[in-house]
């Protein structure tokens, strides 16, 4: 299993990295340069790639190595992948070796392909100058540094490659995060969550960045609560980072899904808040990112959901066009802030710190004689879900439901209970649990519309300075939103009383 952190570097930073004191401090070998050509092969239908694997033939001088790699995961730049390799005679794949590798890594695919040949031409080619040297860290861990500078090519399409790989050869992979953070502090880098194979296939398929929703959390019934927490947090972090490309490309839905991933991560921490404390700098950076994403999302909702539903006359539509234009400018300004945030050194620091905290199990209680995080998840999950449900029940029974802010707090609690149920869905297949989840989703949507109306009124107030000549229409919009909220609140109060005041099990 290959285990490495990939860091994207700028054009000027590549040369600086070779001389970096951080990397030279623990060096036990001199940097060695080598040029190589990687050719990636697949079937005509890209069957390997559809199963998350890539076949590479690396040629360096007269030496050729065939590698089948894939599977695993990538979290905060840390890539864990199956890797099967062997030397071959030429730059053309050895079909017999490929069959053997495929049967070991993907036996089902090997059976379905039944000896089908690879396409004769490579899918894409990677031409790279690689500089490698070895590090020996104080704890005895050995790390190989590999600085790659080159380009990926598919026909006439090309994309530059400049990345630093830190691969652990023996020892705890969590140490790579600390090393990567020190590199980043000396020479700003970015986490590279996608492999060269992913980038190459994107060239081949002309794949565009797109929004990625959360995937189900995989849990083992015999896992401890601490182990389950690690899996949950990794799942949330993967969703956030899977949407980075889309966010940087300006995709609205990708921004929304990154925000969902962050909200799920915060909900997971809240779920064990009495047991786990985030380091203060990490918590502060999470709040910073949540604020940037939240402000941008509010404007997107205003444009996508609020303005199109206004009951306007034909005479009002020219004024609406001017208001909408001003709103789009505000929305784009906030999206640009998000792009700047995600592309900033602070974001990289956050992702490396969060990845290191998760990989290093920063929640472990070494001082406690009986660590509650060591209990089995099969026992802990019902308790956590029921605690989240009790919080919803308490707010539904004890808050003044005539107040919009109180209804919003009920909605937040209901959302956190829904997330908790989704985190542990692999452990519960009860129909009552499914019914409760659907109920919470419905209540969240209903209460969310009320909250959206109040948030939209705040945005309308901001637009008064942008388009003062449209004060009449803005006043009309505020009136419509206020009327909708007043109309929806009695029904929402009734549904909260009827549905959320009863006890709920796992």
Describe this structure in words.
- Helix content is 54%, strand content 18%.
- The chain is α+β, with helices and mostly antiparallel strands and 506 residues long.
- The chain has 2 domains: 2-205, Hypothetical Protein Pfu-838710-001 (Beta Barrel); 225-364 and 372-501, CHAD domain, CATH 1.40.20.10.
- A hairpin with a 5-residue loop joins strand 6 (124-136) and strand 7.
- Helix 4 crosses helix 5 (107-113), helix 8 (225-242) runs antiparallel to helix 13 and helix 11 (280-306) packs antiparallel against helix 12.
- The longest helix is centred in the C-terminal third of the chain and has 36 residues, at 431-466.
- The mean pLDDT is 91.
* Global shape: globular
* DSSP strand tally: 9
The chain-level structural class is alpha+beta
Helix content: 40-55%
Largest sheet: 8 strands, antiparallel, barrel
Strand content: 15-25%
- Count of runs of 4 or more consecutive helical residues: 17
Instruction: Give helix and strand order, one letter per element, not per position.
Output: EHHEHEEEHHEEEHEHHHHHHHHHHH
Count of domains: 2
Supply the CATH architecture of the largest domain: Alpha solenoid
Quaternary organization: single chain
Average predicted confidence as pLDDT:
91
CATH class bucket of the largest domain: Mainly Alpha
- CATH fold-level label of the largest domain: CHAD domain
Gyration radius (Cα, Å) is 26 Å
Strand order of the largest sheet: 1-5-4-3-2-6-7-8
CATH superfamily heading of the largest domain: CHAD domain
Low-confidence stretches: none
Straight-line distance between termini: 37 Å
